[in-house]
């Protein structure tokens, strides 16, 4: 396990061109819940357990989706916001699952042994990300790099694409989902291959599209069409919530408000307005919309969490803690909600709140260790509780996740010098230090 972690960190260091990644994961409990709900029927028809594969969103306007291991599917926010119905998103997920199910990652691992050392090291990423559960580290490789080795790693052959299309259509048909949604996806990218590589969306470069492939997909869609059923209310609902959340936070708030005015006082329109008013910022109106949402769904943990976030970012710390606690009571095992509550408790500033924060953030880390924001707050909680050596451990882990290996090494050494040799914290710091020391050193730019 340790060797795989080292290889992962080395590979990220060798490919990224900046200390931090140029794209990041959008870690949001509500969005991730929506994605799991939408993926569930496709996962079931593809033969995957519902808890094995996570679908995560990258904050990037480009149109792309990819897999890096047998446990994660990554989709760019730009692609999600380009789509207009849940089945289209489910088709994207089905296609990426097909690459996993059809063994394309394994075949790329075999090819990597011939392609060169950098690409071969990259193949350790899949196993390392799967074992460590570190989606942020994996996305550091995938989302921000311009390395030709990384492009080769993620690129699929035309044969693989045809195979994935056929499997994805079968998954969609077995799940009763409209298979013509796959045609919609390919139509979005039609014409991309005629553009210069620099102007193409990443999906077109890594998922080659041909007219033969498009015709084949249309044929598959026609043959599976009879199995499709109307969109379920549940799929429509979660798709609408996720779209509202992404558009609310990523689009211009005034534009969101203009579009929401004609949508009435329904739940989704109210959610869009709450976020847009928060970003404007107009706390009074944002809270009015949130209270309207909570009147509609008083036991929805994600709405309580969003209200907590709005209050926290408006520096209403006591009220934020109350909202986060209500959210956590309704979703007690959700690490992203735990992380938010820990952050709000730290903002309160009292020693009692700091102790509570440390307990809650430690729990969040045990469930989801790859969240840099959580690790930052955990380090602060350790420091406020007088555990400076453990604060250095959490800081070292955060810098390692961000690819800042020199900084990670400094804090890991500091922790190891202060902690009992062989203790759990000392061992965590040792892992980070070994990985940081093994990572290739960046050449400093000449002035």
In spatial order, strands of the major sheet run: 1-2-4-3
**How would you characterize the largest beta sheet?**
4 strands, mixed
- For this structure, what is the CATH class of the domain at 2-227? Alpha Beta
Cα(first) to Cα(last) distance is 40 Å
Binned strand content: under 5%
Report the uncertain regions.
Answer: 1-22, 109-151, 443-447
pLDDT averaged residue by residue: 80
Shape: globular
Task: Please give the radius of gyration in angstroms.
Answer: 23 Å
Number of helices: 25
**CATH architecture label of the domain at 2-227:** 2-Layer Sandwich
User: Helix content range of the residues, please?
Assistant: 55-70%
What does this structure look like?
With 447 residues, this protein is mainly alpha-helical. It has a domain at 2-227: Zincin-like (2-Layer Sandwich). The chain has helices spanning 2-15, 29-46, 77-82, 86-101, 104-115, 117-122, 124-132, 135-144, 148-154, 158-174, 180-188, 202-206, 211-224, 233-250, 253-261, 267-279, 283-296, 301-313, 317-330, 335-348, 351-367, 372-384, 388-401, 405-418, 424-438, and strands at 24-26, 54-59, 65-67, 72-76. It has a 4-stranded mixed β-sheet. Strand 3 (65-67) and strand 4 form a beta hairpin. Helix 19 (317-330) runs antiparallel to helix 20 and helix 24 packs antiparallel against helix 25. The longest helix has 18 residues, at 29-46. The radius of gyration is 23 Å and the shape is globular. Mean pLDDT is 80; it is low at 1-22, 109-151 and 443-447. One of its GO terms (cellular component) is membrane. It comes from Litoreibacter halocynthiae. One of its GO terms (molecular function) is metal ion binding.
